[in-house]
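Weekly structure sync, notes
Attendees: PL (lead), two postdocs, one rotation student
Agenda item 3: pending single-chain targets
PL asked that the sequence for the first pending target be pasted directly into the notes so everyone works from the same version. It is reproduced below exactly as submitted, 418 residues in total.
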Amino acid sequence: MASENASPKTPTEWWRVDTAVLHARKQELEILKRQLDAEQNAILAEINTRGVRGCSGHSTLAAMIFEDFLVTDKEAKDRADRVLALYPGPSIGGDSVPPLAPLTAEAAAEGAIGGSQIDAIIRTLARIPSTVPEEKVRGGEKILVDLARHAGPRQIAQAGRRLLDKLDPDGKEPRNEDPKDARPELRFVKHRDGTLGLKGTLDLETYARLKSDLDPMAKPHKAIDGVRDSRTQDERYGDAFTDYVRLKTTSRNLPGQAAEATHILVTMSYEDLIDDLGEAHLDLVGPISATDARILACDARVRPGVLGTAGEPLDIGRSKRTVSLAQKYALTLRDGGCAFPGCDMPVPRCTAHHIVFWRHHGETKIDNLVLLCTKHHRLIHHSEWKVRIAQDGLPEFTAPAYLDPAGEPRRNTMHLRT
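Predicted structure, written out during the meeting:
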């Protein structure tokens, strides 16, 4: 006969169980949850080591977590940061980058500590100067990990501050009290996860000019069906800066290279472009894949094809890849913004994507085009996500088999269509 205190098999039986068993079981489940989180983080770390883009089509680990697990941007970033800190990662040169918190990873695998405790330890370790010897860093990490086994994030943070005071008694250098004397600097940076970025210092006038230009472009876009702009302020400014650069590089009214609009050069063989093999060379950046080259080549110079009633090109043969203004209006009415399921990016942040690629004889016509934001444009090119125009004339997407074995079509309901 089963014991009265035995763990029940269904949730409806919990009311029968002794209180002491309830408390014991909830602690057991917490340990199991933490162990599962650690196992999943180890898997994500391995995917990151093999190359997130090659494994899933996403540009970063955070982007993969956001899309595959249907979480918020913040949760995706926090989880990705946790993985990158706990496990070795790839470097630009191909060598393994040692983890920031290896002892923390071991405790997490045991189920002894959870997410918020791990984050408190990571935040402290990230602030330790690189001049501190490794043995002292690991000694400090062990102190925090041992504390975390029976303490919460607030206590860990307090201990972390004491540890930093001991390891770095001078603290950060004081800021320049006279920013007017700051010399403008700009650095192009390649991050450890393969993403690219900028770091810079601006004089007051340049800062004011740039911010005044970007502020109107970085405002949250209007709510659609009651759904507000989900981007953070940093993400809005990032999108605004992207559009700002694009406007500069496509405008013929601004100074460019040899009196032409600014351009970048992609070099590769025609055979590699068609066969999706080998790699291309992007001027000022370096080697890129054939797929990335095709994305950059979306707006090549071409000849016109079938004209509409007003003489505008609407149904254009495969020799023309640039989407006409009339076609862009039609796509705006049909898609209302990025057509990828769940994306609320508005039309100005989107470009037209050829559903059947040009190299596969795809034509530049409405039923072969779909609006996609930059992130989802890259995802379609790099992953197993599929898009097609359904019988009712609207775009629908199919997820990779590992996400949806049934292959149910998905649509975006974030935009109003007229």
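Discussion points:
- Residues 176-180, 252-263, 299-320 have pLDDT under 50 and may be disordered.
- The CA atoms of residues 222 and 228 lie 7 Å apart.
Action: rotation student to compare against the earlier draft before next sync.
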